[in-house]
Design goal:
Distance between the termini: 43 Å
Oligomer: single chain
Largest sheet: 10 strands, antiparallel
Radius of gyration: 21 Å
Number of helices: 10
Strand order of the largest sheet: 11-10-12-13-14-9-15-17-19-18
Length: about 350
Amino acid sequence: MNIVHPVADEWGEDYAVFAASAEHVVLSEPLAAFLDYAVTEHLRPVLVSSIDSRLSSFVSLAMRRAGGLWAVQGSDGATYDGLSGYRIDSLRDLWERPGQGTERLQSFRSMAPDPRAVLMFDVFAHQRAAADTSVGQLSTTLVTALGGAPLDLWGPFEPLVDRWDTRTLTDVARRSMPVSDVMHARSRDGSYADLFVGRTRRGILEQVKGGVPVGSYPQAVGGVVQTASSALATIAEEFQPTIGFVSLAEVDGVTHVEATAKRPEVPLAVVIGPRGVHDLEVDTDALAERHDVTVLGRKRTPSLLVRFSDPDQGLWAQLVAFAHDLGVDRLAAAAGLGKD
């Protein structure tokens, strides 16, 4: 008897496959339902598309959240890992031997001569679960502080068709508590954001994740470190987030990702708000001796801005050292991850 699965095109004991035939793959309702199903059933979600397919920014974010894998197929039937470019013999090669092989797609053999860049952000903010609590303004402020145009459209799936309205978003989030669905928003310049809200023991946790295009990939990171730092300082003053990150990543276009070689994403700056400083029991003076730290806000309830700006040390090395000094588990707990 043939079994027809409601959302997957192929599945095994530990994975499920969604086959996308479109040249531009967007986060449609069927694809979103597939990713939700895979996460709920503890399966590896595998997206299969053609070599020339482009994934929208929202697909890329959703795949990251779900731990998704991407396989691309040529007209001759050959299949490749969409993230590393190596040819695979079976889908299991995506997770059993990632980044291994001999034959590789031409698009992964050299870097783009004129790469484009995006400032990625990921911010966690707690609020009281009160009648006057609103969600969505953090997203708008963060996008514009990073140089993007104001968010103007949102929706649960692509294409986004609803006018951006924080009152509407707040009502949607309230009706879906204790955990909201992810709400997607974009700007006319290609900036984009995913917004998620959930209840915690002490109120609600709002997470905002997305990106703002900045044009050509910068030759030096000094300018974008300053932009990232200024944006995080702005939201620290207005929203006092628990913790927030900004990084620099390479993209193929303003609103899409292709199966090509890319420079690795690099961290630029982190902000820790008063609640995070308290929960982490941060020794500000000791931290300032080892990192580029700026104290923001009031002396009794400070926020900390940490810049990863020393090219001699390496940006990732600075982030790893910073996380080690604070404690990775404690960082996750302060952000509201884990049991909450």
